[in-house]
Every structure is written in structure tokens, then in C-alpha cells.
Write a structure and sequence with these properties.
homodimer; 424 residues; Molybdenum Cofactor Biosythetic Enzyme, Chain A; 7 helices; 4 domains; molybdenum cofactor biosynthesis (chains A, B); Molybdopterin biosynthesis moeA protein, domain 3; EC 2.10.1.1 (chains A, B); 20% helix; alpha/beta
């Protein structure tokens, strides 16, 4: 296990951890999902994660089939056939959809076959309808020769019995469910979804359905975080708004740790609430806090820790900061708990865009800049930074995207190309 | 309305429509969503589409608040303050979270204030704790001067009463729900979700939960299409596997048109089933088929039409082709029915990758190539085309991405950079 003692700066404050390092430290502390999964009907398993590898129980397709409307033939009978020198074949039958062929194909004969039709015994290819001329009801001319296997999908061509169909730890997409349906697999074993506790703290916070009196502010974070949790395919469990009196807060936090797989609390970046978070961790036991703030804007005051194996995140109170911290730290943790491979090495798509104005940044800090992507007068993508405060949720709502200013950089210049990620 | 008479080629077959043209033709025929929406509690509205613009009913924040832990001051009292020449201020109180300040600030005085605390009357800025030195319980030194408004978020700085918070036709993301929560909007009016009928046809098709007899094949498309519908935020309604006898098929199709907002049937690219689809459209009435096949691989044999205002898609029977057609045509149609703006002008993120091998394409046709993105030995993205048949669903399951070979191109060369879209 990595060390959990914070490095301190000259004033004795814990030093900020770089984002990448903080994330690696977090993921190194996490256990995977419960080792057992549960079975779900295929149509309920979209976006769930496989708990075991799935092996093809049979060949797909189960037999050789035509991929074209045409005639099932012995390819050798058509070798060299052309418009000027066609091959003549006797029609000895017709393959009907959903039925086994009535007869086998012998040299010099053929059978009509529809797309998807079962290839009759003896046949090894299909001549497309368009490459035949009907002589009469009993005979065709083939005007273009085919090779063995032409227009045929062979038994097991899609997947063979015994081959791996899907690995464990795979998020089921529409095409994966399709593959399982093709193999006749009607139920799939998936991991259960992680449950995430959401706790809001702060004596000024009131439920968003209430009128806020002077000095009070509505609870935004429990709504944004629950929605982010839902987007990750996890289950949000609302633990409500909890007093920042230590004994009350610690009691709720302990209950959340006992009842869920991951705990989020948010309560402002004020020193008071941060102290509360630090004291609460001390009550919960080992390993405690592993990250005391990160070199990130917005999101610097995040606390990351664990109570035994349950990760706990003390998120900044500013709604934008909390959302950014969720994306950078909570989301990868949830992926690990869900049973997915770590995101390192996973492709992330971007849009290259021209920056409309210069932005400064402090070296040594990762900046996450909200942006508005738009097509400029030349039909190229440009991105307008949205530079409001991290307390202003409207800046996040106006953003359709974001981009990064990496740690070594002191800023970006107007006109520079930046790689932009979409907020979807 | 655009013309619905198909252009025919020299053999009298309807000519293939280019993909972009087919999509534009389709979208031009569609009505939007029902003009009325219904109300949902905020936490149930994630990913739903607003049915009306939302105007901020009040200022957010409702009053001036501190963004730092420190002291609320009159900025003019601190002008020019520095380490060597500090300003001295009397502490006359403390702002408590969730409560209105007890007193106003007069010249030469200050109040302790936490992050998020309501700014006392008279104060116009906050000095950070770090820029003060405590003299005693009643006095501080300010060692760095501030300007008016420093460390304060003003009433309405986030959003002002009467300003537009969200437009109509906006898909609600976590941050949008957060903005509404901040404004005390507990319910939101959204469009209802489009309902999509899924019909499988073909006498060889059996339910995927059944054993397939010789010549039979399990129903993959109803599973993949239902999952794709679900991913679009629409509701899939399974109309089962229907005989391809014309009267039975037309009766089911009519019922689907009556009961849902969009109808999908898939039944193979064979001429037989395609003919069935064309005859069925003729029974349903105007405007009928508007696209008879597109210049696309895979997906060429798609039929697109309408019965009055309900769009109907005859999708190819090959699972991969049906999925590709869904993405290119059904998805944008569903967006329009859901009330979202058309995708034209919407950013789509990609990953630039090196193509590992050359691929040929016919000019005049859009090719959608399944691919496997991976990091090559130099840590750069490369994409390996997956070149199996469109009947082989495993090729789609092995793919994590796709890329396009545009109509004018006759192919791409190994080593070329291609823009790759993720299958997520």
C-alpha cells in the first residue's frame, strides 16, 4: 500500500498532490467489485458489466447460409463462366426460409436460394441473381463464375463454439447483447451496480425544494452528483443534508460507509468544513485520508480517503468544483468498483478547436476550463472559454465542453489549437 | 414536401440515394415532438428534453456572498495595505453560515466570514484569512489590500431573475439539473419520450430464447435495435416476430403505426423481404417510401418512408447493417421526434488514428468500417479495420470504434490518419 502520510509544505499544510498521482494512489487502494455476479435477462443487461467471461456455446451461424438472393451451386460448375460463355445449370429445387433444403446439389444442378437460406448439401457457393439469366423454369445461365465460398457465410464464421464471446469486466453494448442473442444466451451474469452515498453538509444548505431564507443556499451538489452517479451506471443513495456538528456528521458518515460502496460528501471549500472532513476521517479509522487537496483548478480542496476498503470523497462545496472532481476521481473509482478495466489506455475522443482568447494558468496546476464549442465563420470548430467562478453553476450549464491546461503550462494563447472534450 | 418518386436506374430499379441526401429528405418530412410536455420531478428528468424555455425566477445567488474564509470589509479601508504597512480593522462580529449577518460594517471595522457566508450590509469585499494577521480578539492587520468585489459573488452573478436559464429542446445534463436546483425549480416540463415499434419479419427467424432448428436463425435485430433505442432515450415496444405473409405483416405494421411514433422492421436484405416492405408501404398510404436504398456499405437496402407523419424504416436483415442504418438514419429521426435540435452543427468527437492496412471502397458510396482502436508500440492510436461480413454480429462486438470512407474516395492506404468514432 502506498503511504498515506501527507507531504507538508513550509507552513505545515499538506502539500497538493498532482492529479495523475492522486488518481493512481486512489485506484491502488481500491478493491474490485464483489466477486459474485447475478443473472439478468438479456434485455435488462444493457450497459451492465459482465462478471465472468462468456464462451460461445455453439457455432454461429449454426450452418452454412447464403448471403445473397441467387442460386446455390457447386462453384467448380461456374469456373470461367461469362456473358459470352455462360454455364448452364438445371434448377432442381428451391431453398425455403426457415426450412432445411429438400435435396442435395449435384454437378450441373442448382437450387434457388434466398439471403439467409441454408446452403444445400453439396453446394459450396451462391451465384447472385444478377449474374444469372433465366433460360426457362428448369434452367439458368450463369454469366459470371464464382469461387468456392462466394456469397456464403459458413457455419461458425461469425463465432465458433468454445471461442470467447465476451471477456469479464466488459460493459454490454447493443452489439454485445446482439451477439449473445445470436448464440441463444438469454441471461447474462453481471456485477451489481455500485451504490454511492451522497451527503450534503453545511448549516446554510437547504433542500432545493425549499425557500432559502437570508444566508441560506439551496442544495445543488446533491442533485448534480446524483445525476453524475446515474450517468456512471451506479445507484445514488441520498443521505440528505447533515449538520456540520461533528458527532452528527460522523454518525451519518459511518452509516453511509456501512451501507454503500462509495461515499461522497460535499460541504464547501471553507477551512471549517474541510477541518470537519479531516476530523471525521480520523474517527473512521484506517487508512484514512490519502490525498489532502490536489493541484487542480477548480477542485483543489478535495479530500480523498478510505475507511477500510470504502472510498470516501470530501468534495469541494462549489458545484463546478465538485463536478470536476467527480469526473477526475470519482468516475474512475466507480469504474473500478463496477468491474471495468481502468481507464488508462482507454481511448477518449476529442474535437480539435481554435481557442478564442488567451488564458493564464499557474504552472504546476491542472486547469479544467469550461468552454463553448461553436462553428466559426470558416466552418471550423472554435472554443470560447467560460471563465466564471466555480461557485456559478450557470457557467457549467452554458458549457458544452471543456479542455485542459496541463501542469507545466502557464497558459494558452488565443488562436492555439486545443483538444476539447464534450460534456454530453 | 420533397418529391417521393424514386429516381430509377437503367434497369428500372430505384437508384441509390446518397446518405446525406437521404437523411435530409427524411428529416424534412418529420414533425417535431408533441407540443405539450409533462412535468417531472428534477431527479427523474436527467437526459430528458425540455419542452419549454426555463426562465430564472429569482437571482442566484440571492444575495452577495463570500467565496473565501476571511473578513468582510469595506475595500477602501484596505487600499495600499501591505506587510510593511498593514491596515488595522476592528472585529465587530462574525457571520454564521445559514444566518443573516447580525450587524452592518462601518468604516474601520470588519466581520469574520466563512466561504458562502452572506456579506454584511456595508461590506463590499472579503480579505482572505491568509492575508490577515490576528492582533487580538478584537483586531486584525490586513497585509494585502483588496479591490471592491474581491472574493465576493454578487447577488445574481450566477444568473439573474428573468434571464433564460435553459432553452426549449435542451437535453438535461447533471449541470442543468444543478442550475434548476439552485433556482428552486423542483419540477421541469419535458417532452414525452418517443415510442419505437420493433418488428422482426422472416419465416426463418425465431426468438433468441428458443432453440433454432435447421434453417432457422435467432432474432438478433430486435435485441440490438431495442438496445439502440434505449440508448437514444426512447422507449422500445417489441412487436415480436411477424410472418412475412403480406396480410399478416401489413396488419402488424398498421397497428405499429397507430400505436407508436416511429416504426422499425427488419427482415433481411433479400429481394423477397424487400418486396414485402415495398408492398406494405403501398397499403399504408401517403407519402409512402421516400428513400429506396442508399449508397452505403453496409446498409444499402434500407427503405425509408412514412405513413402520414409516422416514419417507418425497413432495415436490412444483417445485424451489422441494421445497426449502421440505425445510427445514420433512425437516431437523427429520434432526436427530431424527441424535440432536440438537428445534429447538423453539433460537434462529434473523434480520435485521430493510423490505419493499419489499406482498404478499398467503391467511389460514390459511403463505407462505414468497424475498427479496433489500440495504442501502438509508440504509444500512438492505431486502428485495425475489422473486415468481416455484415451478417457477422461478432465483428461489431469486437469493434470499439468505426470510421468512414467518404463517397468520393476509392479507399484508404495503410498508414493514413483517419478520424475514428467510438462505439460506446
Amino acid at each position: 500500500m502506498p503511504t498515506t502520510e501527507p507531504i507538508r509544505d513550509m507552513l505545515g499544510r499538506p502539500a497538493l498532490t498532482p492529479v495523475t498521482e492522486a488518481r493512481a494512489l486512489l485506484l491502488a487502494h481500491l478493491r474490485g467489485p464483489d466477486s459474485t455476479g447475478h443473472q439478468l435477462p438479456l434485455l435488462e443487461a444493457l450497459d451492465r458489466v459482465t462478471a465472468a467471461p462468456i464462451i460461445a456455446p455453439e457455432d454461429l451461424p449454426p450452418a452454412d447460409r447464403s448471403t445473397m438472393d441467387g442460386f446455390a451451386v457447386i462453384a467448380a460448375d461456374t469456373f470461367g463462366a461469362s456473358q459470352s460463355s455462360p454455364a448452364y445449370l438445371d434448377i432442381v429445387g428451391e431453398v425455403l426460409m426457415g426450412h432445411p433444403p429438400s435435396d442435395r446439389i449435384r454437378r450441373g444442378t442448382c437450387q434457388r436460394i434466398p439471403t439467409g437460406g441454408l446452403l444445400p448439401e453439396g453446394a459450396d457457393g451462391v451465384v447472385m441473381l444478377e449474374h444469372t439469366v433465366t433460360v426457362d423454369e428448369t434452367m439458368i445461365e450463369v454469366v459470371r463464375g464464382i469461387g468456392t465460398g462466394t456469397n456464403v457465410i459458413r457455419r461458425g464464421d461469425d463465432i465458433r463454439a468454445g471461442e470467447p464471446a465476451l471477456p469479464a469486466g466488459h460493459r454490454l453494448r447493443p452489439q454485445d447483447l446482439g451477439l449473445l442473442a445470436g448464440l441463444g444466451i438469454a441471461e447474462v451474469t453481471v456485477y451489481r451496480r455500485p451504490r454511492v452515498a451522497i451527503i450534503a453538509t453545511g448549516d446554510e444548505i437547504v433542500d432545493y425544494r425549499q425557500t432559502a431564507a437570508a444566508g441560506q443556499i439551496r442544495n445543488i451538489n446533491s442533485v448534480t452528483l446524483a445525476s453524475q452517479v446515474q450517468r456512471c451506471g451506479a445507484v445514488a443513495v441520498d443521505f440528505g443534508i447533515v449538520s456540520d456538528r461533528e458527532e452528527v456528521f460522523v454518525a451519518t458518515l459511518s452509516r453511509a460507509v456501512a451501507e454503500t460502496d462509495l461515499v461522497l460528501f460535499s460541504g464547501g471549500s471553507s477551512v471549517g468544513v474541510r477541518d470537519l472532513g479531516e476530523r471525521a476521517f480520523a474517527h473512521l479509522g484506517k487508512p484514512g485520508i490519502i490525498v489532502h487537496g490536489v493541484a487542480l483548478k477548480p477542485g483543489k480542496p478535495i479530500l480523498i480517503g478510505l475507511c477500510e476498503q470504502t472510498p470516501i470523497f470530501g468534495l469541494p462545496g462549489h458545484p463546478v468544483s465538485a463536478m470536476v472532481c467527480f469526473d477526475l476521481f470519482v468516475k474512475p473509482a466507480l469504474s473500478t468498483l463496477a468491474g471495468l478495466p481502468t481507464e488508462a489506455g482507454e481511448p477518449r475522443a476529442t474535437i480539435s478547436a481554435r481557442l478564442t482568447r488567451s488564458i493564464n494558468s499557474a504552472a504546476g496546476r491542472l486547469d479544467v476550463i469550461r468552454g463553448r464549442l461553436f462553428l466559426d465563420e470558416n466552418g471550423r470548430w472554435a472554443v470560447q472559454p467560460i471563465l466564471g467562478r466555480s461557485g456559478a453553476i450557470s457557467t457549467m450549464s452554458r458549457a458544452n465542453s471543456y479542455f485542459l491546461i496541463e501542469e507545466p503550462s502557464q497558459g494558452l494563447s488565443a488562436g492555439e489549437a486545443v483538444e476539447v472534450y464534450l460534456y454530453q
